[in-house]
């Protein structure tokens, strides 16, 4: 219950108490006894009716506030999960194009460019995720995969302007191989490949 509702209930209770006390303490010579109690009974009926309506209104207000908060939270969660899904989708799409490039007898450079572009798009989506939502293991792994794949693709393309970024990403994943045992071999291979393509 918020502060305003609490203060309103307290004031209403005080007024009701004062009125009931006044009705009970009226000198009997001013108002006949039967009339005095009829007034009290009618007043109590009105007050109780007002209280019931007040409680219903407050209850409805609380329900609407809670419902609004739940809807906002649900919408926010849905947006975050959709963005995380987009990260995974673009990582995979980039990998598919790299695989097509890698397996082709005649290399199609455009496939490698598309792989890089799609993986960079995954990175863009990752940066749209609120920082507190990136702390779970799955999202952290996705971030490492993006950096691993980009480091490898950059080293494969071997442009001089990609050198610093490829080495930065390779060093980043090298530092995290102990956290993801299943990816250890691939990430170490990427690190070694980047260092061979862009030696000191």
Average predicted local confidence, pLDDT:
84
Roughly how much helix do the residues carry, as a percent range?
A: over 70%
Distance between the termini: 65 Å
Radius of gyration equals 35 Å
Shape: rod-shaped
Strand content: under 5%
Q: How many E strands?
A: 0
Structure summarized in a few sentences:
With 200 residues, the protein is mostly helical.
Structure write-up:
The structure is a single chain. With 200 residues, the protein is an all-alpha fold. 80% of the residues lie in helices and 0% in strands. It folds into two domains: 3-66; 82-197. It has six helices and no strands. Helix 2 runs parallel beside helix 4 and helix 3 packs antiparallel against helix 4 (137-157). The model has no long low-confidence stretch (mean pLDDT 84).
Layout of strands and helices, then pairs:
Layout: H1 3-25, H2 33-103, H3 109-126, H4 137-157, H5 163-174, H6 184-197
Helix pairs in contact: 1-2, 2-3, 2-4, 3-4, 4-5, 4-6, 5-6
